[in-house]
Design a protein that fits this description.
The chain is α+β, with helices and mostly antiparallel strands and 120 residues long. The chain has one domain: Beta Barrel (OB fold (Dihydrolipoamide Acetyltransferase, E2P)), CATH 2.40.50. Helix content is 22%, strand content 34%. A hairpin with a 5-residue loop joins strand 5 and strand 6.
């Protein structure tokens, strides 16, 4: 059973893996409670980074993987997709805590000189 969904979350640190022969990329979107594997073929937005917010639109497969047609990156360091903020609040978590974690991951990656976590 496949269905079109729109999911928001943070790109999980260390999860980005690129195919050097194509535009295919795999990564994990997380709300730091649950993770979702995402597969995408195309050019990612310039602001796409590990530890930063994204919204993906695509087909959810029966095995739980999401094949994305679109990947939208965060707008600034305080951005959290509304879907993620709502899910965190419903789960009893504070979105502000996760924004701080995302900022921490982003700073660490910048210090390490990893523009997006090349993965492969």
């Amino acid at each position: 059973m496949e269905r079109q969904i729109r999911a928001g979350g943070m790109v999980k640190e260390g999860s980005v893996s690129r195919d050097p022969e194509s535009l295919d990329v795999e990564f994990v979107v997380t709300d730091y409670v649950d993770d979702r594997e995402v597969y995408y073929s195309g050019i990612l937005p310039d602001l796409f980074r590990e530890g930063q917010g994204v919204v993906v639109v695509g087909e959810l497969q029966a095995d739980g993987r999401l094949y994305a047609d679109k990947v939208l990156a965060r707008h600034d360091e305080n951005y959290m997709p509304p879907e993620v903020a709502q899910a965190l609040e419903e789960a009893g978590y504070s979105p502000a805590d996760f924004q701080a974690k995302a900022a921490e991951v982003g700073k660490r990656l910048e210090q390490e000189g990893s523009p997006e976590g090349s993965g492969n």
